[in-house]
Amino acid sequence: MFQKRLASISLLIIVLMITLNTLATMFYWYVSIPWYDMMMHTLGGVFLVVFIAALFTRRVLRSSHVHSITTVLFVVLIIGLGWEFYEYIVQYSIKGSARLASIPDSISDMVCDMFGGILGVYFVLMLKRRYNKNND
Length: 136
Known about the structure:
Layout: H1 2-27, H2 29-32, H3 36-55, H4 57-62, H5 65-93, H6 103-134
Helix pairs in contact: 1-3, 3-5, 3-6, 5-6
C-alpha cells in the first residue's frame, strides 16, 4: 500500500514535470520567467526522493529517519551534480546553443535540488507516519 502510493505520486510528479517542461520549451518560460528553472529543480528534488522511497520502501520503513534522510539527500546531491555537468557538456558541445549554464546558475540549481529533496523527505516521512499509524 505504502509503496503503491509512493509509486503513483512519483508517476504523477514526473508527468507534471514533463508537461511543464514541454510547455516551458514551447513558450520560452525558462528565459522569460526568472524563477521557472528554480521551480523545476525543486520539483526534481521532490520527485527523486519520492521515487527512491518507492524503490526502497522496505528499507525506508525499517531504517531510522536520520539514515534515510542522509542517504536520500546524498543521492539527490549526486544526481543534481550529474545534471549540472550534463548541462555544461551539452551547452559547450552544441554550436550556437545559448550559454545559460554558469557557476551561479549551477549553485542556485543545486540549492533548489536540495530544497526539493528536503521537501520530499518531509512528505515521505509524513506518509510513513500515516502508514505506520494505520497499521498499528
